[in-house]
């Protein structure tokens, strides 16, 4: 596995082909501080090209996922002088960069939500390739009740739940729990409690282990390019990715394993 950066607001637990990233500010309900955002961005950069790493799990310490942006921290920062509009916009936009990175990270990203996912925490839940939520987990897009918009997470939430639901959830600050989160598409899998969440996560990891890590990375790239390019260009991009994989080590091993009726090497490592 790639060399991981030193972190304070995060706890990193590498184990084999899986890296668990814990949001580690339980005293602040794992609110997203500038330090936490910078550290998570550094972790994603460090691991992006590491194909020995198949999965990144994102979760929160203290039985709670994430209560959103660090409003108290921002307010205390104002004591050093009133920031300009440009200062605030720049700081807000930095979280959008993190959202893009996490959304398009080549590894499979599993998000485990228990306790609560509020504001930016709900946004993070929306960029998991697989998001597992407990039945009693609480969700809310609370920004407009604070007099601010859910600026950087809005595109990702809208992509996840659809335009009409996104408008309703953002403009009403509606509260809901795990089962509804799965109905909206924020979560993929509903767990009864924390223990069940762990068990369901283990099942997903077993499924990911059957997939070639390089092919998964290329597949994620194809998926996102289909949202950005005209259809013929997206298919050209996909064809080049297919050819690279087919003629690469994983493709040759996958075809050989199929013909020989055995598991490919990546499924037995």
What does this protein look like?
This protein is an alpha/beta fold and 269 residues long. The protein has 2 domains: 10-209, 2-enoyl-CoA Hydratase, Chain A, domain 1 (Alpha-Beta Complex); 213-267, Lyase 2-enoyl-coa Hydratase, Chain  A, domain 2. 48% of the residues lie in helices and 15% in strands. The chain is built from 11 helices and 9 strands. The strands form 2 sheets. A 6-stranded mixed sheet has the order 1-2-3-4-6-9, sandwiched between helices. The chain has a 3-stranded mixed sheet with strand order 5-7-8. Helix 5 (154-161) crosses helix 6 (163-172). The chain is globular. The mean pLDDT is 95.
Concise structural overview:
The chain has helices at 34-47, 71-77, 85-104, 120-125, 154-161, 163-172, 178-184, 194-209, 213-225, 231-246, 249-259; strands spanning 10-15, 18-23, 55-60, 108-113, 116-118, 130-134, 138-140, 175-177, 189-191. The protein is α/β, with parallel strands linked by helices. The chain has two domains: 10-209, 2-enoyl-CoA Hydratase, Chain A, domain 1 (Alpha-Beta Complex); 213-267, Lyase 2-enoyl-coa Hydratase, Chain  A, domain 2, CATH 1.10.12.10.
């Amino acid at each position: 596995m790639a060399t991981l950066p030193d972190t304070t607001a995060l706890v990193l637990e590498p184990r084999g082909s899986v890296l668990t990233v814990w949001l580690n500010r339980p005293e602040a309900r794992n609110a997203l501080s500038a330090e936490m955002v910078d550290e998570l961005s550094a972790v994603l950069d460090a691991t992006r090209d590491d194909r020995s790493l198949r999965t990144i799990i994102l979760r929160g310490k203290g039985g709670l996922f994430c209560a959103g942006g660090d409003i108290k921290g921002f307010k205390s920062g104002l004591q050093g002088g009133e920031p300009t509009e440009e200062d605030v916009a720049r700081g807000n936009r930095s979280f959008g960069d993190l959202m893009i990175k996490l959304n398009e990270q080549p590894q499979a990203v599993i998000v485990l939500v228990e306790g609560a996912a509020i504001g930016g925490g709900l946004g993070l839940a929306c960029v998991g390739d697989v998001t597992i939520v407990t039945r009693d987990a609480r969700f809310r897009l609370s920004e407009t009740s604070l007099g601010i918009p859910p600026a950087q997470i809005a595109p990702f939430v809208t992509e996840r739940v659809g335009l009409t639901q996104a408008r309703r959830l953002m403009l009403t600050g509606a509260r809901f729990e795990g089962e509804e989160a799965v109905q909206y598409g924020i979560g993929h899998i509903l767990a009864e409690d924390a223990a069940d969440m762990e068990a369901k996560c283990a099942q997903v990891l077993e499924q990911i282990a059957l997939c070639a890590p390089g092919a998964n990375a290329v597949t994620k790239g194809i998926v996102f390019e289909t949202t950005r390019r005209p259809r013929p260009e997206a298919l050209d991009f996909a064809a080049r990715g297919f050819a690279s994989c087919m003629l690469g080590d994983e493709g040759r091993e996958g075809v050989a394993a199929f013909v020989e009726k055995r598991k490919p090497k990546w499924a037995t490592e």
